Amino acid sequence: MLKIKDLHASIDGKEILKGINLEVKAGEVHAIMGPNGSGKSTLASVLAGREDYEVTQGSITYKDQDVLELAPEERAREGIFLAFQYPVEIPGVSTTNFLKTAINQIREHKGLEALDAVSFLKEMKTKMKLVDIDQALLSRSLNEGFSGGEKKRNEIFQMAMLEPTLSILDETDSGLDIDALRIVSDGVNKLKTKDNATIVVTHYQRLLEYIVPDYVHVLYNGRIVKSGTKELALELEEKGYDWVKEEKVA
Amino acid sequence: MSLQEKLVTNFEAFEAGLNGHASLPIHSVRKEAIEAFKALGVPGPKNEEYKYTNLGKALETAFDFSRAPQKSELTSEQVAKYYIPELDANQLIFINGKFSQELSNIKSPKDQLVIKNLADAFAEDQDTIDQFFSKQADFKKDAFVALNTAFSHDGCFIHVPKNTVVDKPIAMYFINDSSAGQSFNNPRNLFLIEQSSEVTFLEDFNTEGDNESLTNIVTEIVVEKNANVEYYKLQNNKDTAYHIGTTQVYQARDSRFSAYTFTLNGAMIRNNLNIVVDGEGCESNMYGLYLLNGNTHVDNHTEVDHVKPNCVSNELYKGILDDKSHGVFNGKVFVRQEAQKTNAFQSNKNILMSDNTIMNSKPQLEIWADDVKCSHGCTTGQLDEEGLFYLRARGLSEESARAMMLYAFAVDVLSTVKLDPLKTFLEDLISERLQKDF
Question: Chain B residue closest to A163 (CA)?
Answer without folding.
Answer: B394
